[in-house]
Amino acid sequence: MVSGSGATDGTVNGRGNIIIGYNEDIFPFLGGSLPASKITGSHNLIVGKGANNSSFDAIVAGLDNVSDAEYASISGGNRNQATGNFSSISGGQRNEASGPRSSIIGIENNLASVEYSSVSDGSNYAAAGLRSTVGGGFGRSVVGEFDWRAGSLFETQ
């Protein structure tokens, strides 16, 4: 597949993508809060409907997911956003991986907003500290560097 620029490292131009799905409004059940799918990035694999991608080398699967960063991936779920370079979301809904190299393996409403932060297996989490992680339970957050929470445990336990 050729990007149209003549080189794989050319400017992002919406070419060189494989798209399996439909060009439908994102979140139509909420009044169409985002316009029809925009695949303006290059060298992406998009599977599902309502996906938006404006960068390159992303893999996006699921329903109404948005990848807006280099090498970001969403592997399933719906209404997720991977906006940090090298970020990833594996399943769930309404999750956002906005920190570079952040990751979410989660159920819903999770945020990994700082570099190398991660959230796994829960809902309503926020990992907002550098290299921080949250896992298990409900409604937990960390803001300190190298901080962690697991279920009902704190770092000192």
From TrEMBL:
It comes from the Bacteria. InterPro entries: Serralysin-like_metalloprot_C. This is Trimeric autotransporter adhesin YadA-like head domain-containing protein.
